[in-house]
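WARN retry 2 of 3 for item q-0093 after timeout on previous attempt; input resubmitted unchanged.
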Amino acid sequence: MKKISAVNDFVIKFANVNGSGSASANELFARSILRMGVPVSPRNIFPSNIQGLPTWYEVRVSERGYLGRRGGCDLMVAMNPQTWDADVKEIEPGGYLFYDSTRPMPKSKFREDINVLGMPLTQITNEAYTDVRQRQLFKNIIYVGALSALLDIESDAIGQLIGEQYRGKEALLKPNLHALQMGRDYAIAHLDCAGVGLKVKRADNVGKRIFIEGNNAAALGAVYGGATVCAWYPITPSSSVAEAFEKHCRKFRVDPETGKNRFAIVQAEDELASIGMVIGAGWNGARAFTATSGPGISLMTEFIGLAYFAEIPATIINVQRGGPSTGMPTRTQQADLLSCAYASNGDTKHPMLFPEDPKECFDFAATALDLADRLQTPIFLMTDLDIGMNTRLCEPLVWDDDRKYDHGKVMSAEELEAGRDFGRYLDVDGDGIPYRTYPGTHPKRGAYFTRGTTKDRYARYSEEGPVYVDNMQRLERKWETARNLVPHPLTRAASRPSKLGVIYFGSTSPAMTEALDVLEAQGRPLDAMRVRGFPFHASVMEFIASHDQVFVVEQNRDAQFRSMLINEGDLDSARVVPVLHYDGTPITARFIIAAISEHVAFLNVTPIKKVAQ
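OK item q-0093 returned
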């Protein structure tokens, strides 16, 4: 029988039951490979309930450094009878199935084109442990030990990780090391370890990169970016942003002399209240943010419109999930683009930043706080569950200690005292951004009435048409200013001139990187652009104009990013071709390659000419 053979280049998937304690064991497996200098990219696919439903943990092992989902599975660790048939079906021909063979399985439950590795895990744990919970937990460690033998993972690498996890907890350390060794010993004695073609070999391809979740990185970026207020309401998959922010603040934002907190974190009664608190803090001069997901954005829309029209800084971290409505709380999508870009009634537009990994979550969180102050408007950091809740390998988080916060145009007491003209909505230099004052700046000057209704340049109520138009045109000038302030797109040129291009953004990036390499190798080179901010920089439309057709890769049903491109650039829709993935799982390189290849093949078909009669 054919066997897949690969060193440091394969996909292993764990099929477990949620609440079984498998998550920590599966992450231990992934980290042990990373500890051997081989890049890995794990993804946790879990249900929205607490316990009982299926959960999967997929680990991409790639010495070349591909961090996106490839598609397919080379080794399935099938620990959930409920999903057995689907899990077995997913294995690549010539791949491997590792399962608990305590209870005999009928032949019909297997495939003839895969290699089966059975180990009586339940029997082993029942004989070794009497406590029911211990049996379940150590079963997970035992199969990690067996896999270490089958794949040539260094036992010391796993042992060191267990030692670090349970340092100072001898009562937990020894049993875990014992269970690990039990699994390893059994595999060496009873399984054909040499016959497994998937192997891990020590390398040096990780370098100085770190392993961190996007939500954690975004929270740390908010701390370094000067945020002192976080108001939030719990919602998957964004809750850990606020939780991590509190953790980091207790380390960095407590006065060492008085012990007093120099931060405020409020769990509000709902999302509408949380964004209201953020706007109130921003109006008072504090740097404030909230973290939420799609349903929360829906509830916040009224206040977002107020912040836009009253011109109050606010930063919103949107960790997107599957929608609409409650949708799929624990699945990923890029489906809140339109609802955020044009949130609220009337003519509104909001800047958005699109990070590709935890490193950019850190960088862009701080950038968003600067932009909110500079532009005096809501700024959206558009991440998603794939980036936010999965541990990702990325470049180290770096902060320049000489960096100064950009608070934008704030008129001082000295300027007011000197008689400088202050109009809250007065455009003094043509960039559309007016000066503001903080409450209490001056005892007699610089005050204004904040309103969501129409007003003139001096914040006085007005319903006159020309006054309204003047204000809206100034807001449009501010939008044009923002175009050059948001992060600019990055381009990747094909190896030879190409009439085709591709645009992508956010968490699509890792899979897109691999897809571009494969398409290039297949003789289908494409120029590529990763967009990192909205409003779109002028170079985005120039990129589209320079190609016959441009693919737009995104993770939603309705081609929302493509719609924004067409709307903002007044484009011919035929020139921008949608590539859409929206089943809730992270997009794969194989999906992108297949979609683009199919379209390119269609373009190359020569039409049949009619024969003259």
